[in-house]
């Protein structure tokens, strides 16, 4: 299997458990692509929603995807600090068309002071019932949530204070 080349632009697609396309990020620059991790950067890109709406991101972001983790992380670089938006979902798949994952609704927003808030628990429970998530999926999502919270508290991976700065500088070197 090949992986996206460093310096290439890729599309990121999220799906729902029922297989329906949820959201598409039009252009992310691959800063590092391996069989285990893809780190990308983007700035003010167009995002398409499944209902046809489009919007543009407001700030530069560094995206972290892992081939074995049930979450992905977006570090948003703002004037008042780095905010993180974390999606609970399947590990990524790269099929040469796009980086893809299934989004399971639960999210965590992390603030510059490292405090965080779990979001969309009601939406997760509703979709869990509507789409009949298998027990294994629920266990993986809950384990991903716990691991993500641990990474946040420990400053591990993309939550290491040097991570967004280092990768953002690399992103700028491509522009």
Automatic annotation (TrEMBL):
Signal sequence interval, chain numbering: none
Keyword annotations from UniProtKB, A to Z: Hydrolase, Magnesium, Metal-binding
Domain DUF402: 18-155
GO molecular function, a single term: hydrolase activity
One Pfam short name: DUF402
Protein name listed in UniProt: DUF402 domain-containing protein
């Amino acid at each position: 299997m090949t992986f996206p080349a460093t310096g290439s632009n890729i599309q990121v697609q999220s799906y729902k458990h029922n297989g329906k396309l949820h959201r598409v990020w039009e252009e992310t620059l691959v800063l590092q692509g391996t069989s285990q991790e893809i780190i990308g950067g983007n700035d003010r890109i167009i995002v398409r929603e499944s209902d046809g709406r489009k919007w543009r991101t407001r700030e530069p972001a560094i995206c972290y995807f892992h081939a074995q983790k049930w979450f992905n992380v977006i570090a948003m670089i703002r004037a008042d600090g780095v905010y993180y938006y974390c999606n609970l979902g399947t590990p990524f798949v790269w099929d040469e068309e796009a980086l893809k994952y299934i989004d399971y609704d639960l999210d965590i927003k992390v603030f510059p002071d490292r405090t965080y808030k779990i979001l969309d628990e009601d939406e997760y429970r509703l979709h869990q019932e509507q789409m009949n998530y298998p027990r294994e999926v629920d266990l993986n999502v809950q384990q991903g949530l716990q691991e993500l919270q641990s990474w946040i508290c420990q400053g591990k991976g993309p939550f290491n204070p040097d991570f967004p700065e280092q990768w953002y500088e690399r992103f700028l070197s491509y522009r």
